[in-house]
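Final report, closing paragraph on structural work. Over the funding period we assembled a curated collection of sequence-structure pairs, and we close with a single example.
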Amino acid sequence: MCGIVGLHLRDRTLYPELGALLSGMLDQMCDRGPDSAGMAIYGDPIWSPEGHATISLLETPLPRADLAAALTSRLGVEATAFDLAPTAVAHAPVTAEQLHDAVRAIAPTARVIGFGTDVTVLKGMGNPTALAHRFGLPNASGWQGVAHTRMATESAVTAEGSHPFSVGPDQCLVHNGSFSNHMSVKHTLEREGIVFDSENDTEVGARFVAGQLAGGVDLEKALLMLNETFDGFYTLLVSNKDSFAVVRDAISCKPAVIAETDRWVAMASEYRALADLPGIDSARIFEPEPEEVYVWHRQ
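Its predicted structure, as stored:
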């Protein structure tokens, strides 16, 4: 079944409340996905400080202090690592690509679940509300966040199988539904040299979108191309460092509701996840139309 929530803030005075607001939204979706959960925060000054690249990892073989020391030695600048078990987060004042390559060299068996200059991705198994509090999500700040509660259907219940899937710099994709032709799309991408980390159908969608964005296509066009390529029933929330987008399949049987005010834009699988947002009584509330891409850009 799965539950999606996302919040894009327009009003800077709300930035300190991002984590608390997103945590409240996530809590309402626990019954839609009790297996595992994941979340991504854009712009938190502790997890993703300005001028630093950040990387999120699962299954890193190094203790966090050793990871930080090894990155510092390899990069020649001071790196910091956090233990947000089972996720490890590290950042350093280098480019996202430099940090990614350094981690690959130091810990080649670690699973990269997110990287970029703005985003921190956190994943785990178990009750989504408990995970959010263990990670410290209610205290996070920033300008955008997405989260997902998972009821596994296409692959095993694991931390790495939870959403969001973040396979390009500052990119995240969360998904409610299933892609019925994901294996044929996956084989096509593999022939193009794309390497996959999981058996999850959502990763196929994420890597398809990431490939389009890397090729210079904008987010709206990338999601229109996804609609043309993928079969199945799905609602997707896709974010990057300057955009927040929603798209559904042609049948649109997977629920979604969007609310918009001058201060924020929010999306969730059900209205109850939006009900406590500030100013919801005066929000424009609507259900996204089939196959129409909705995109909001950071101002």
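The chain is about 25% helix and 30% strand. The chain has a mean pLDDT of 94. We thank the funder for supporting this effort.
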